[in-house]
Amino acid sequence: MDETKAASLHQTKKPPMYKVIMLNDDFTPMDFVVYILEAIFQKNNDDAMQIMLDIHHNGSANCGLYTYEIAEMKQTQVIQFARQNQYPLQCILEKE
């Protein structure tokens, strides 16, 4: 087997990446969304405000790009924290 074939057999594939997309609703306060973006997605305040406004004006926004396991964990954290605070906030995963 030549070197190029051997090298290609040993290359690892990058895992697929997923967007965590937060959806707008008429009940969850904007400051709560900003807090979630800062606490769960580690966004600074300016970025969190911009993403929150995108969600508010466009109906949804991408909060981050992660491997499936991390994206799913963040989605679960958002939904659980929202429910604990009695908000219907939702987020979905979308394969990049």
TrEMBL record:
<comment type="subunit">
    <text>Binds to the N-terminal domain of the chaperone ClpA.</text>
</comment>
<dbReference type="GO" id="GO:0008233">
    <property type="term" value="F:peptidase activity"/>
</dbReference>
<protein>
    <recommendedName>
        <fullName>ATP-dependent Clp protease adapter protein ClpS</fullName>
    </recommendedName>
</protein>
<feature type="domain" description="Adaptor protein ClpS core">
    <location>
        <begin position="13"/>
        <end position="91"/>
    </location>
</feature>
<dbReference type="InterPro" id="IPR022935">
    <property type="entry name" value="ClpS"/>
</dbReference>
<dbReference type="InterPro" id="IPR014719">
    <property type="entry name" value="Ribosomal_bL12_C/ClpS-like"/>
</dbReference>
<keyword id="KW-0645">Protease</keyword>
<comment type="similarity">
    <text>Belongs to the ClpS family.</text>
</comment>
<keyword id="KW-0378">Hydrolase</keyword>
<comment type="function">
    <text>Involved in the modulation of the specificity of the ClpAP-mediated ATP-dependent protein degradation.</text>
</comment>
<dbReference type="InterPro" id="IPR003769">
    <property type="entry name" value="ClpS_core"/>
</dbReference>
<dbReference type="GO" id="GO:0030163">
    <property type="term" value="P:protein catabolic process"/>
</dbReference>
<dbReference type="Pfam" id="PF02617">
    <property type="entry name" value="ClpS"/>
</dbReference>
<dbReference type="GO" id="GO:0006508">
    <property type="term" value="P:proteolysis"/>
</dbReference>
